[in-house]
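Lab notes, practical 5.
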Amino acid sequence: MNKEEIFKLYKKYHVPVHVVSHMNQVKNICDILADKFIKKGHKINKKTLSNAALVHDLFRVCDFRDFDPKKIDQKITKEDIKVWTHLREKYGKIGHVKAIGDFLRNKGETTFATLVERHDFYNVDKLKTLEEKILFYADKRVDHDVIVSLKKRFSEGTKRNAKKGDNEPLRIETQNKILKLEKEIFSILGESAL
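Output from the prediction step:
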């Protein structure tokens, strides 16, 4: 999958502008970290990583907890609402991570699908490759399209996404694992976090 194909997907699925901005910022962090790992002698498939960052939230609209098109800061068309409603109906029960993974696998992009699926918050224990770790970490550092600390992202993410009855101890345990992942990444690089 190349950038031209990705941009066609943005258009086809009417990806909200703020989601595209988020994915672009995640890509920027992925590129920075990939370059640092490559400079240290690690093998990174930077093109695949960058493109995965550009599609990781392609179907994010299906998980918007408070789906109110009026709150999306862009001009909304009837076609936008039609496409978003369809995505929410089709993928709302499985979520955007599984949805994009299934979509990519159906296109024959199995490696790409696995990489993208690993960015889910609770998949921190499943991360194996440096590409998976970088994409996961980069996504957790970007709140909308602003690079923030993990602690700020956790706080904002909890406000936006936590549901009544969520397993708070599991969420906190996962957050601690993500903080350890950050230390692991920058320990390998021999530097401090971004």
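Observations recorded by the TA: The beta strands are 142-143, 146-147. The domain at 3-189 is CATH 1.10.3210 (Hypothetical protein af1432).
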